[in-house]
Please model this.
Amino acid sequence: MANSRLKLTFASSDYEHVRDLIMGPIEPEGIELVPITLQIEEMFYRFINFEEFDISEISSGKYTSMISQGDDRFVGLPIFPSRVARQSSVYILPDGPIKKAEDLRGKRIGVPEWGQSASVYSRGWIQHDVGIPLTEIEWFQAGVNQPGRKEKVALNLPDGINLTPMPDKSLSGMLLDGEIDAILTAHAPELVEQRDPRIVRLYPNYREIEKQYYRDTGIWPIMHLYAIRREVFETNPWVAQSMCKALTEAKDRSMERMLDITACRAPIGWIYDLAEEARELFGDDFYPYGIEPNRTTLEAFLLYGYEQGLFHKHMTPEDMFPKEVQSEFKV
Model:
């Protein structure tokens, strides 16, 4: 019998909570997936610039900026495979002028891209929670470790924002040379990964600070989502619901594994205790998908991105996703 399922390529990072979809046993209804696991920056570049995949993980910042400008080549799904709190994303010199977040006022700060999702949340925190207007900071854009990185989306910067591209320099080099005072970046500088003491996090105890930030605000930053090529979606709109259901089931199975106290399902000691702690903080569904469980985070993200000139209009969470997946999807 001929295979009647729709064959679609699916590009994703290597996530434990997507594993059951990539490797089985979960199969999205009506779809034969061809999984492709790639490094994040390469995957985003190939999807955004060449539309190489039918379904792909994509930066939430870049996707939302695109649709705010009328670029509707992709249809987003409210499935968020990567979310990371961002008080951990501020890097400084240990003997530099910044000792606490309030010291960022009037300083020079580097970002790898103004449009990086992590930077949207970090700047929103600086403005709305620390209380420093973004106009009171001098901003620089460059690659974190190597020169040459460029902005990937058009910006509509508000008056008073001073952002200078530095194509011939790296942020790490600028920080070490005293040309900037801090870096906001999703990916830690290589020197930090190498445990070189010349660059450190602003908050070594970031985990406690980030947990308290969530308790205070209800914001748990979303970095990435999945999106479908417009052509695929318009021809087969049912694909959105099918993928949401399958990805949710894969995530739910992963959470069950992490809570299993009889065996360590990930190579991290006490992973089950960490999972239980996450459940106490975030609720029974401690890695929620969908609009409604993430409304507070999404609304903050959309406000921050608009205020910062990344999103060209102020949107609602419903503007990000098709009606087929705006309500709760059952597994």
Notes: The CA atoms of residues 94 and 108 lie 16 Å apart.
